[in-house]
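tl;dr need the bound structure. longer version: we got a ligand (magnesium ion) that a collaborator sent over and nobodys looked at where it sits. i said id run it. heres the input, straight from their email, havent touched it
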Amino acid sequence: MLNLLRTSMRTLTSTIAKIARARKVTEKDIEQIIFDSTPALLSAGIYFEVVDEITQQLKSELVGKEIPREITPEEYIRETLKNIIRKLLNTPTIDIEGLIRKSMEEKKPFLIVFLGFNGVGKSLTLAKIGYMLRKKGFRVLVAAGDTYRSAAIEQLEEYSRMAGLPIVKQKRGSDSCSVVYQAVEKAKSKYYNVVLADTAGRSHLDKNLIEELRKIVRVNNPDLKVLVLDSLSGTDAISQLEAFNKNVGVDALIFTKLDANPKGGIIVSIAALSKKPIIYLGVGGGIEDLEPYNPEIIIDRVFSWD
Ligand SMILES: Nc1nc2c(ncn2[C@@H]2O[C@H](COP(=O)(O)OP(=O)(O)OP(=O)(O)O)[C@@H](O)[C@H]2O)c(=O)[nH]1
Ligand SMILES: [Mg+2]
């Protein structure tokens, strides 16, 4: 986007030259800059409502400002824009390890349920998190809560094997809620610290599956409901978040497939619109391809996109 913004700014040489002469940004200058940079922000994958929010903030931060001598107007505007986007990306944080330790003191297994649309990366992300927690010394148990899709249980068994994690499963078609319940009971009796529950991929239109999810949540009362979102899914991710949040409530978000996505605008959009904690980023198909969320990673993506 930076390059795009540069390109659009090149067409704005007269505005920039005027700002450079005056060392001050007028309302008229900023209107011109907004007009020219809006397509760049949109093509970086940022949702139009959020682009509007960003450009309005840019306006209120720049109009009337004196530009320091040591910086070019172009750099000054770009840094201001970066800081606005950085603030949007600063979502609340969740200290998962701290929460697990607290649960351990209370002698309760910490239950995390993974939710999301079909194929977004729920099961692999669950295994990545289990692997990471196991490496840190936590005792982790997996619950094969996707009893719906064919081969889902076998796939999760394979992921769990890669992660070195034991799994609780029942046969396909059994009650997902009871698999999670059984896993939590096992965790209590065998002193597991964490239960990671997989669920079947679903859309808000699958009434039965949404009802099943509500039951899982009502009966098992998870400590954390994590919505997994595919960073390649574009603005669909916004409606997925709205639907899951409305139906069962979402405590935290994970974006997957950042390795395949050169932009990052969807993360800016969701961070700005939802203010939900983003906890991890999936960056590949391997068991270790998980990174703690860091807004700077997204800033770099947004500002290096060509
Ligand atoms: N490149 C890449 N691939 C990923 C990432 N996360 C998941 N995948 C791939 O995405 C595909 C779907 O992952 P799953 O974990 O099965 O997704 P799911 O949400 O459990 O899918 P359903 O159970 O069918 O709803 C698999 O091929 C994964 O290897 C990631 O961060 N990067
Ligand atoms: Mg799955």
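gonna send this back to them w/ a short note. Residues 96-296 form a domain with the Rossmann fold fold (CATH 3.40.50.300).
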